[in-house]
Specification:
The protein is of the alpha/beta class and about 475 residues long. It has two domains: about 190 residues, Lyase, Ornithine Decarboxylase, Chain A, domain 1 (Beta Barrel), CATH 2.40.37.10; about 260 residues, TIM Barrel (Alpha-Beta Barrel), CATH 3.20.20.10. About 30% of the residues lie in helices and about 20% in strands. The chain has 13 helices and 20 strands. The strands form three sheets. Strands 4, 13, 14, 15, 16, 17, 18, 19 and 20 form a nine-stranded mixed β-sheet that branches. An eight-stranded parallel beta barrel has the order 5-6-7-8-9-10-11-12, surrounded by six helices. Strands 1-2-3 form a three-stranded antiparallel β-sheet. Helix 3 runs parallel beside helix 10 and helix 9 runs parallel beside helix 10. The longest helix has 19 residues. It is globular, with a radius of gyration of 23 Å. The protein starts with 5 loop residues before the first helix and ends in a 12-residue tail after the last helix. The N terminus is likely disordered. The structure holds ligand LLP. Ligand LLP binds next to helix 11 and helix 12.
């Protein structure tokens, strides 16, 4: 059971010294306050007022939290790693122009996994030299798009290597050799949901580590490509530091091997994966602790292998954007089933947050217009979709609420909007970026016209 009323966590106490606070260890965004009316405020803006102005459901993104997380990663890598480094934002966590532009403004590069994410990043003005293009089945069109803009391609498999070399030889307009990084499965297990584990041997991502000699020999035979280094990612929502530490020695071994073969590789990308606190019992390490382990692990392994420090990259997604956002919903119907359960329905659900139904994910929530009321009711928050499994929070303790009250669900920045759907033809919500009492729309709410925008009615069905 999870509750999150002011008595439990006192959001007003977290806003004074944000420099010390790791956003991924907080349930609420850093700027969260309870105002004089007892309403939750984010970015100096009352949540019920935001809903009045922008409608509901509404994603509310706290600029302070996102910027603080970017800065903590950036500064920690500068501090703990003796060589050059670059933090990338894994834009799959939430890809839209405003968020891409904001993280780029903090000096971060971007990880993209599709032509659509690449297009969004380029439209947002992100420097293509700082974009790294992933994917286990990139299309030829996507590879061509990546080559044309000059971003780094993270090669994932043999077919892709063949396609890439074919495209390089057929296109003579490339001004400089394409930069390619090799993704290898590190063979490292970690404890997270099986759908979001990627580092174990039985993974669809990356080259089998047992084939590394063949991959490197392919690289040696294709010097027209700028083989810049290696990539590995072990999974997501990870609370342990050990698997990341283990990864540092494995990835440096690959680099040392490449160097002995005379390949001039000089970049290592250790992926993302740091978890965030969704509920009180979650206990992730801080951004600084994670960065320290990774940076020291790489530098010590390089010293031991007697190779120069490569450029070190990481690509967190969830720990950057996850804690920065809350989703506000309007409370609607209530159903009391005697001695069984009380359902409280809201005006969104699995179409704006598919994580509970997909991964059994848990969240914390509060009634944003009753922050000072005692939490005395156990309720289950049901979405409005035609599916019994559409439940966002099970058995949460909240103050008694009325239809029209505002439910705020915390930590919804990562993999909510980006995995949102139009199931039941429900429009995707709007999103606002809030800071210092200002709210800027970053995504418009979809309209009914938007929902039928791609529909085609064959002539014989017209009436
Ligand atoms: N790099 C690669 C290659 C990845 O596959 C991922 C996430 C990341 C970086 C960022 O990982 P993060 O720092 O966000 O943990 N939809 C799932 C999560 C899927 C993660 C996919 N890859 C969820 O909602 O939990």
């Amino acid at each position: 059971m999870v509750s999150l009323q002011s008595a439990d966590i006192n959001p007003n106490s977290t806003s004074s010294s944000t420099a010390e606070i790791s956003p991924n260890q907080q349930i609420l965004p850093l700027s969260a306050q309870v105002n004089k009316s007892g309403h939750l405020e984010i970015g100096g803006y009352s949540v019920p007022k935001l809903v009045q102005q922008f409608g509901s459901p509404l994603y509310i993104v706290d600029e302070l939290t996102l910027r603080t997380a970017c800065q903590q990663y950036h500064r920690s890598f500068q501090h703990f790693y003796p060589g050059p480094s670059q933090v990338l934002y894994a834009s799959k966590a939430w890809s839209c122009m405003a968020i891409c532009a904001l993280v780029a403004n903090e000096g971060l590069g971007l990880d993209v996994v599709s032509g659509g994410e690449l297009y969004t990043a380029l439209q947002a003005g992100v420097d293509p030299r700082k974009i790294y293009f992933h994917g286990n089945n990139k299309s030829v069109a996507e590879l061509e798009m990546a080559l044309a803009c000059g971003c780094v391609i993270i090669a994932d498999n043999w077919l892709e290597l063949e396609q890439l070399t074919e495209i390089f030889t057929s296109v003579d307009s490339l001004s400089s050799p394409p930069r390619v990084m090799l993704r290898i499965t590190p063979g490292i297990e970690c404890h997270t949901h099986e759908y979001i584990r990627t580092g174990h041997l039985d993974s669809k991502f990356g080259f089998d580590p047992n084939h590394i000699d063949q991959v490197l020999s392919f690289a040696q035979k294709n010097p027209q490509v700028n083989w810049i280094g290696f990539h590995a990612h072990i999974g997501s929502q990870i609370f342990e530091l050990q698997p990341h530490q283990d990864l540092t020695s494995v990835i440096v071994e690959w680099l040392a091997k490449a160097k002995t073969l005379g390949l001039p590789m000089n970049e290592l990308n250790i992926g993302g994966g740091l978890g965030i606190r969704y509920v009180e019992s979650d206990d992730p390490p801080s951004i600084v602790q994670w960065s320290e382990i990774v940076c020291k692990g790489i530098s010590q392994a390089c010293q031991a292998a007697n190779i120069p420090y490569p450029k070190l990259l990481c690509e967190p997604g969830r720990s950057l954007i996850g804690p920065a956002c809350i989703t506000a919903y309007k409370v609607g119907a209530k159903k009391d089933i005697l001695n069984i359960r009380t359902y409280l329905s809201i005006d969104g659900g699995m179409s704006d947050n598919p994580r509970p139904i997909t991964y059994q994910s848990v969240y914390s929530a509060a009634i944003a217009n009753r922050m000072e009321f005692p939490a005395t009711e156990i309720v289950t928050i049901a979405g409005k979709h035609c599916e019994s499994g559409d439940v966002l929070l099970k058995d949460i303790v909240l103050p008694p609420s009325q239809p029209g009250d505002i439910l705020a669900v915390m930590g919804t920045g990562a993999y909510n909007y980006s995995m949102a759907s139009n199931y039941n033809r429900i429009s995707r919500p709007a999103a606002v970026l809030v800071h210092n009492g200002n709210a800027n729309l970053i995504l418009k709410r979809e309209t009914y016209q938007d929902l039928i925008r791609q529909d085609c009615l064959p002539r014989h069905l017209e009436r």
